[in-house]
């Protein structure tokens, strides 16, 4: 049974071949990369149609009785669905990239990194133990760094890449500690071995909660949850297909996927679940608020990604993995669609990203317009588009378990409708507000093709007959009417207000700086890192100046000099003085030998 | 009757004179002579100890007297070396006064 290995290694070999052999032939490189992911897609599809199988594992590292890391793959319904999502959305984005990155100098490097990313992402999905998952987890972080910084000659891109990497490191550190603590308690890091061993940890509630929260830390960074969400909006400095692939559809969803994969750990700790649910809710609400005041088309989408990921994390925290995965599934389609639509707009406008310099694009770019409209409707959860069903599942779960989270979720749904409609109205309706917008033209088919396919999926992915093929659709028996009605009402009100406010506006009517600056969290981190660095530098400087310089270096020289000065007093140069001292010493010697 | 105490008194006296000479005199030749005096004071006390320590067999202990011969030999050698140095010093400095020889002083 080599199919899972084949589909995992195909993007890796593509990355290796491109890096080693075809770096100079940009066209060839891009086709190798596209071919590799299409191959993975086909393998995933074949795998999906087959019954679940056990993939024989190989031992990689073994210290008998202490520690064992197998090279093994998990094939179950969860991973098969995730494989399809990653390879399918990934394939469309690869194809789209052919158009978007057509004239880019670093096209080979871009496609190599894209392939490596897909390899790492598939690795996370397939890993059957924590160590493999962690390695792929880091690899995903690294490729994300490379891709965000693709245009590294732009300072902001280089800074954003660095920020994304470092922020992820913070979360990964917690993740690693969690894994180590879990291993210390159970002696195993393989998921299937851990499940029967959980009783060793569940007895100790506090320890278990710490483990669960630390593992959640990894998801906080990777899925850009508060308070480690700061890297995602900046990551929009990367090429737009990268934003679509990594920062909307797949990598940020890895956190949610990981939580679902290790649900047996976090669900054993009610405290950890509460933390997770609230972090998700806070992120969803906060990001939605910030998104209402952003002017950059990609930043609006980035904050909306944060917000939707918050929903998913909240769903996992409320104990409904199905709802979380369902939203992940639909979100992958419509958010990739929105990003690719935004990319299409950005290319048409020659890399103009300010929504107030767009306007009226519905006439020039009909396909992008329609696709974007479907994506927007799905995102705001307008029935019967896909987002409606998945968001409804989460809200219903919240209604059942935690009214406060439900209320915030409802407000977030309202805000989502508001900012998405604001974006949509500003970009596609009204008058054209810049020359670039006037001269804009529809993108080539290689870009609109993926848009159309994704639009179809965004429209239908929520329906039971479609989605239940891939995952379990959560069914909440009661509240079938109330929750969807409230959610739809919130959506319509939000969209209506946005249309009323922004329909004929050439610029934003409001300026809430606190939202524009993202609640000053970046400034806070800047300040915090500033003072902690200042403090550390102060300590280091103190050690260097006083202990190393004064203590060690000058201490040695001063000690020698002082001893010399003291001993010099005896060296009077007078023969008889020496003789006298000598005599004195002999007397002292005799005194001490005889009388002591 | 001359007792051990009398010998030791003379020896101490000789030593003190020698030590005082070494401390107080300025001429190196005198200092050298005083050094010899001190050595001989020690010799005197050693001989006295030897003479007065009677062993159970009725004979004296002659170990110390052997020691004295060594001291006399070494002292002779020392004087030879010392005088040679003084001659060399006088040739270089035209002086035998210790106050004039203070080059080691920092």
Shape of chain B: elongated
As residue ranges, the low-confidence spans of chain A are none
What is the strand content of chain B? under 5%
Q: Most extensive interface, residues per chain?
A: A-B, 10 and 13 residues
Strand tally of chain B is 0
What is the number of helices of chain B? 3
Radius of gyration of chain B: 18 Å
Describe this structure in words.
The complex is a heterodimer of chains A (596) and B (106). By secondary structure, chain A is mostly helical. In chain A, 75% of the residues lie in helices and 2% in strands. Chain A is built from 27 helices and two strands. Chain A has helices at residues 3-20, 26-49, 77-100, 107-126, 130-148, 155-186, 191-197, 199-202, 205-222, 231-234, 240-249, 251-261, 263-266, 270-291, 297-317, 321-348, 361-364, 366-380, 386-401, 403-428, 435-438, 445-460, 464-470, 482-502, 513-516, 521-568, 575-595; strands at residues 58-63, 67-71. Chain A has a two-stranded antiparallel ribbon with strand order 1-2. Chain B has helices at 4-24, 28-52, 63-93. Chain A binds chain B through residues 568, 571-576, 579-580, 583, and chain B through 19, 22-24, 31, 98-99, 101-106.
